[in-house]
Design brief:
Blueprint lengths: L6 H43 L3 H55 L1 H15 L5 H26 L11 E4 H13 L5 E6 L6 E4 L1 H17 L4 E10 L2 E8 L6 H6 L19 H11 L3 E7 L3 E8 L12
Parallel strand pairs: 2-4
Antiparallel strand pairs: 1-3, 4-5, 5-7, 6-7
């Protein structure tokens, strides 16, 4: 394998290609300006010795050319930096398109194969029509939800901007989600720490459900045996949601990419998933102008802390 095909060789080649034009341009500009400085020094010496108008005009013209040269160098540098920023953005979009294509060609292929097999089984009489229709409906619904999740992430949940919010009990919603997820949490103890009397908020129930559900699902999914804890608390500017577990944990490299769409760490490929869960959570948190923080290490578990600046209406005394 040649040096240029190694990872270090590719990085070195890209770095040289990226900066070569700027370096060459800077060297040429510096050489030109140095020569002009020397010429100006000589013209000044002549102008002091001989005060003829022609010499003074020459001095003025050379000083003007020098100012133009400095301006051109500044514009060239700004344009080159702008091109670099655009190139990075295009590279990021190309990577995302590659991940989306890989997902469409590989991960999304499996359910459509199942749908095709179930449809053939019904047509050939090997599967009852009702059972086949239910299986196809379930698989189709899962794919449609995945497509809808990706659309919402790509648009930062813009569709919810015009939607009406509703008042509901966040503790009750989180408890229902926890009950549902606990049904599949074999070998995992799921505990809750909710404020007494519940915690009422005004928000979009489906969007908040995405945040709570995805964080809890990930915690249970990657905790083989141990505990998962969900906690809610009222804060001065909204609410705080904490989901902690004693599971596998994540390395710094995984944490650096965990919010990318369709990204799945190698250690997580033994569990079902699409790679959109944490991307959905971050997009929903950003929609509300909140924050999300992660504290994790391999073998030490993971703690996600979400702060949402939601309105928290106080319950009416008549309803207590």
């Amino acid at each position: 394998m040649g040096f240029s095909r190694t990872r270090f060789g590719r990085r070195l080649f890209r770095a040289a290609l990226r900066w070569s034009l700027l370096i060459v341009g800077a060297v040429v500009a510096v050489g030109y300006l140095s020569a002009m400085d020397a010429a100006l020094a000589e013209v000044r010496r002549v102008a002091r010795a001989d005060g003829r108008p022609a010499v003074r005009r020459m001095l003025d013209e050379m000083q003007t050319l020098q100012a133009y040269a400095w301006g051109a160098l500044g514009l060239f540098s700004a344009a080159y930096l702008a091109v670099l920023v655009l190139a990075r953005r295009l590279a990021s979009l190309a990577d995302e398109l590659e991940r989306l294509t890989a997902f469409a060609l590989h991960d999304a292929r499996t359910p459509f194969v199942r749908i095709h097999e179930d449809a053939r089984a019904v047509a050939e009489g090997r599967l009852a029509p009702r059972a086949g229709a239910c299986a196809i409906a379930a698989l189709s619904e899962a794919r449609l939800k995945l497509i809808e999740d990706y659309k919402n992430i790509a648009r930062d949940f813009a569709g919810f901007a015009a939607a009406e919010t509703e008042e509901f009990c966040l503790a009750e919603l989180a408890g229902c989600i926890a009950d549902y997820i606990a049904l599949e949490a074999r070998g995992v103890t799921l505990t809750r720490d909710f404020p007494p009397g519940g915690l009422r908020v005004r928000a979009h129930r489906p969007l908040v459900s995405e945040i709570v559900g995805n964080l809890l699902d990930n915690a249970v999914k990657y905790t083989d045996a141990g505990w998962v804890r969900i906690a809610l608390a009222r804060e001065r500017r909204g609410v705080r949601l904490v989901v902690a577990d004693s599971g596998r944990g994540m390395s710094r490299e995984v944490q650096a990419r965990m919010y990318e769409r369709f990204y799945r760490a190698d250690a997580a490929r033994d569990r079902p998933g699409s790679g959109l869960g944490l991307a959905t959570v971050r997009a929903a948190v950003r929609f509300y102008g909140g924050s999300i923080a992660c504290d994790s290490a391999p073998g030490r578990g993971t703690v996600f802390t979400v702060r949402l600046p939601l309105k928290c209406p106080r319950p009416s005394p008549l309803l207590i």
